[in-house]
DNA sequence: ACCTGAACACCGTTCAAGT
DNA sequence: ACCTGAACACCGTTCAAGT
């Protein structure tokens, strides 16, 4: 009922936008709908994101990408949805208790956390193709990767190549996992005869997480100099 | 000037849609603009794609995904843009002159062709995340992969896993190659000190195609049983 | 069968105005 | 500083109508 000061903030907007994306899909995130969900006129959003929807999209990508890469145990839960809101802020400085795990263990943790974050917001994935977060958190992640590879004995172009391979792997694996999750299982009459290998292998399903970790292990092994 | 029968066809619509996407970006592909480019009222498109834009998007994904996977020599040209229109039709049956090259050579050719197709239409990449073509051509590609892996000695779950890894690799590598092509090269003052590894490696650029083939070779080697 | 024209229920964004 | 309200130039899609 109060006309002004609705308690809007960039964080609240991002969280609500993500809820709409996760629940209804990317195309249904409109400024008007987002405004409604925030109990605010759509135009109020422009006060926090003056550059409009594109700026909001970038903030969403940055938000999802901001996985801690820490906490050794947390990466094992195959939870469906993670509670929103609590993952920012704390422990932001440069003085974390420097990680004592091996370089590959740290990268494994990051990869699993990042995969989970992407899967939890799979509807937002199209935003990631032409956008890369330009934030402190993104820099921390890069530093984490390069530091790990340095410890593994990779420097210079080798480290850059390795980091690219790791990033490519997680992205590609998640997209493969998400792509057309329910393919209509093509008419077997068409398959019969002309596509014998495909027919023979149809119906084989692999545990997605297992496949991810297997591929990841294989990649990390191949990077070891 | 003639009112009716403008010579519209699904193929012409797809080609023109792709031209708009490549030239102006995905969001600027609208039914009205597409109609204008085709010298037709926007609503005419619905006669060829009754399910509307979503059906058009699926057709575009299928069109781009339809790389022959044949012609051993063609994959080496790092051409910027390939002439549209000529890549369908011919040699569609099941009776191609069965490929005599080794299994990994055939997969390499497919991967390079597919990478080129994706790069040539990078603006369409967001469409690929939640859509997988359900066409004969897609089945042919799957069969090609499984046949190659069978020849390599991989069967059952191993072949499925290998095909997934190959698909993931190409997708992930292309997206990495395309993602935020012009990052503004972050303020070096911020980088200084707190991110030493990142600072040390900044400015290192690798030849994208070389990186792709190196990673591909490494993947194929790791799949060999 | 193939395309048009008008109409409907939306969009993102600007801009002046309110408090 | 923070939000509203009206307005502008668009959207995708339906539906009846033309040829």
UniProtKB/TrEMBL annotation, chains A, B:
Disordered: region residues: 68-102
GO molecular function, one term: transcription cis-regulatory region binding
Residue stretches making up the HTH tetR-type domain: 13-60
Coiled-coil zones: none
InterPro entries according to UniProt: Homeodomain-like_sf (IPR009057), HTH-type_TetR-like_transc_reg (IPR050109), HTH_TetR (IPR001647), Repressor_TetR_C (IPR004111), Tet_transcr_reg_TetR-rel_C_sf (IPR036271)
Pfam families in the record: TetR_C_1, TetR_N
Spans through the membrane: none
Comp. bias (Gly residues): 82-95
GO terms under biological process: negative regulation of DNA-templated transcription
Keywords: DNA-binding, Transcription, Transcription regulation
Domain Tetracycline repressor TetR C-terminal: 97-222
Keyword Transcription regulation assigned: yes
Protein name: AcrR family transcriptional regulator
Organism: Streptomonospora salina
